[in-house]
Q: What sequence folds into this?
């Protein structure tokens, strides 16, 4: 890492970074708290076999910052946080690891509230909940809301339709060629919505079992390997795997008029790739706006869960996407910057409210 951790925290505006280590269970975790202006920092715990500790720190910092924007733009009274656990998901999981991690979360006294993320499940949240109340996304049989992925997928579908309306003059996706990269929890539900609407869906995933499962579940889905993905003609690219797939090389090859997907941190560098997409005439729906459905769902656990209300709030992603795309046009801003502007204004407004008696 060329810059120090504190340099990164200062540049990205973080409040706190917590390192958690337990040799007995093999736990090495980093909890990143970005901003608690709006409320406690809520964000999932990602389990990933990072190439280096530096990569893990940067991921935690970037993801937690995204959560601040996601909560702010979704009108939630929550701050931004995220945690990463370093390790191989196939071998590291144990009751002891989750419970020890739960104790670390508890030690923050509610400043950070955890949830699921890549490689963590409602079952894992159940173990964490044995040691702390500051956990959401616990299974339904424990009074929680369960897997947030269907809500995330529905929100992505809404944002995609709003972008389609702008790009194609209609939000009807029937006949539109949509490529879904990553058919995990969110990707599979998204494919379901798209097939139901009559879209022509192509899928790609590095996990052969997931591809097989999806292709068997949804007839008519075309399967491709990920090679030369962006050389292919498509109407909509839906990144639903990991981040940074929208980079210089990809944009140079891309032929799709719309990017709308669930992955966090889709732009490798928002300052470079946001403007590049505008120049190329590609409509990009900002990730923290379009993938907020899961957060909206788990946040509802905190103040009394009601599924219908949650679905209504997730549906608002359509209108919000249209607003951001209009602001981007009007102010000649790239869409990520337009969405950030709205989120930052809410952060400033509420900070001012909270500073007064
Ligand atoms: N689950 C949620 O509710 C939620 C909410 C907000 C954002 N997200 C984001 O959406 C993305 C997907 O989340 P998920 O819960 O479905 O995760 P997941 O782990 O269930 O699925 C991700 C899928 O992507 C595949 N994948 C990984 N690298 C790939 C590559 N290079 N090419 C093709 N496929 C690849 C994996 O094999 C897996 O099937 C993540 O970036 C996550 O952070 C998820």
A:
């Amino acid at each position: 890492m060329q810059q120090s951790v504190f340099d990164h925290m200062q540049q990205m505006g973080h409040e706190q970074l917590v390192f958690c280590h337990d040799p007995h269970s093999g736990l090495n975790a980093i909890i990143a708290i970005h901003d608690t202006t709006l409320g406690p920092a809520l964000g999932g715990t990602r389990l990933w076999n990072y190439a280096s500790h530096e990569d893990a720190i940067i991921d935690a910092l970037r993801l937690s910052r995204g959560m601040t924007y996601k909560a702010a733009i979704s009108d939630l009274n929550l701050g931004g946080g995220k945690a990463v656990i370093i390790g191989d998901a196939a071998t590291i999981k144990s009751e002891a690891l989750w419970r020890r991690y739960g104790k670390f979360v508890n030690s923050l006294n509610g400043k950070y509230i955890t949830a699921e993320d890549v490689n963590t499940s409602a079952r894992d949240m159940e173990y964490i909940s044995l040691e702390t109340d500051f956990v959401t996304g616990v299974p339904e049989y424990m009074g929680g809301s369960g897997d947030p992925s269907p809500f995330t997928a529905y929100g992505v579908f809404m944002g995609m339709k709003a972008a389609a309306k702008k790009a194609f003059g209609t939000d009807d996706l029937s006949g539109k060629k949509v490529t879904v990269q990553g058919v995990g929890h969110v990707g599979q539900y998204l494919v379901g919505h798209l097939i139901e609407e009559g879209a022509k869906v192509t899928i790609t995933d590095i996990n052969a079992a997931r591809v097989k499962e999806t292709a068997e579940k949804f007839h008519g889905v075309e399967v491709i390997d990920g090679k030369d993905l962006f050389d292919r003609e498509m109407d909509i690219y839906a990144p639903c795997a990991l981040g940074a797939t929208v980079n210089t090389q990809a944009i140079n090859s891309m032929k799709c008029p719309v990017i709308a997907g669930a992955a966090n941190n889709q732009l490798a560098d928002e300052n470079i790739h946001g403007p590049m997409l505008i120049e190329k005439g590609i409509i990009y729906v900002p990730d923290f706006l379009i993938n907020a459905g899961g957060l909206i769902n788990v946040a509802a656990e905190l103040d009394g869960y009601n599924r219908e209300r949650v679905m209504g709030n997730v549906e608002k992603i359509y209108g919000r996407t249209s607003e951001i795309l209009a602001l981007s046009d009007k102010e000649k801003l790239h869409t990520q910057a337009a969405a950030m502007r709205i989120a930052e204004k809410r952060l400033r407004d509420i900070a001012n409210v909270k500073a007064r008696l």
